[in-house]
Input
Amino acid sequence: MAIGCQTLVGFMLRRNILFLALFIALLIATWTFRAPRPSIDRWWIDAAAIRGASSSSMSPSPPPPSSLSPPTQSHNNVDLSAPDAPFVSWPLQRVCTEAVWVQGLVYICDNNSGGIGNVRNYIHTCIRYGLEAGATGFVMPKIRKRNDTDLADLFTDYLPFDYMFDEKHFKDAFAASCPQITLYDDIESIPGVSSKPDIEHITPKKFGNREGCDWRDQNRHTDRFGDRFRKWLDDPKHGRPPPSQDHPRLIRFDWGVLWDWQTYRDGPEFANTFGNILRLNDQLLRLGKTALKRMHAYAVANGVKDGKFLGVHLRTESDALGFWPTYNTQTEAYLQQATKRGFEVAYIATGDSLEAQNFAGAAIEMAQMRVVSKTDLLEGEDLEELESLSWDQQGLVDLIVLLGSDFFVGTMPSSFSTYTAMKRHLRTGGLYTRPYKVGTDGDGLSYLVGNYEKYWEGWLYMWDGMWS
Output
């Protein structure tokens, strides 16, 4: 039978395609068996490292070298809730690697006031904005001292950084993580600055459209702040040239930039470590650790074999605001927790000695619990040194003991109580601790009495903007 031209051509094409497909299949099979199989990098899903467990014989493969990746050695066995926890630097180093640096841009982070909860968050928030802006210089933050006789007076003299914090630790943290940044001891040390420095004041929230936002809301434009700020910085209509090493531009925030930055947006590894650039100075750490050690000894001496104790923050001093929980509300809630959890001894932190005595009496009567304070535990030269400190410095000694307590009770919306609960919360997950569940029974480590119904009026926004 004769075969048509079209039929022959079609047969030849199909046969050629079949041969080609077989050839490709054989080639793939050959290379599959000959080529070495790449190892799978599983460092990022190592459950043991995330939980902080000890490493097993099946250790994860190290990640490829990169300044943007976490190190191969897990830092999750570090107790980040400790007041002297080491600074884990790679999350800050990653932020600095991603920054767009501006030579001659210097941030001054000193417009702070209040107690430790407020002061440290002012400094952290200002520095975080400065990193996003690309500042290549920071002036060592100074601290506004509170009036010891009028606690509501937050604006007295400026004191040096080491009034509260460890200056060497702060400088070492930046030297290791952000070598692009220069830390100046004071404004006069900045090259190119005149005897009458021109300091520009800004409010970061204004670098974005906030139509419809509550004025207390966090900054919803932090992702765009850097670009918008640098555009503003270079705009000639403001009457100033762009910054340079010879002609620096100095930036200071208007007062009140405190809870602006939503910390969770930086990821848990940064949010849970950035706070440790501010470590309490050696004197405060020593006194606090001494008081904590003696608190455990006091508990043992009173029949508590494991030295367990309840930490109490009673916030009833003269500067407490009218809508905060009253003495009666705090006392009732605290003693309910003490009874529920079976505590026999407690440590009280308060600046009101009369209310401390009242609480101690109520604790004996209602919960059969003995209560002591730092002045009961310290003695001799330690007590003399404590009494020489300011009101806020003495509060930092309290903080160290409360961080070491077995359970903590405080009041919302005290920033001191909130910070203490958040810092203790780092015990739950270390580097990868998830945000505290506000307004619930918490994490089993702390309980804060207060009104959790209204986000703004109840100051719940602090939890979203506080660095732990």
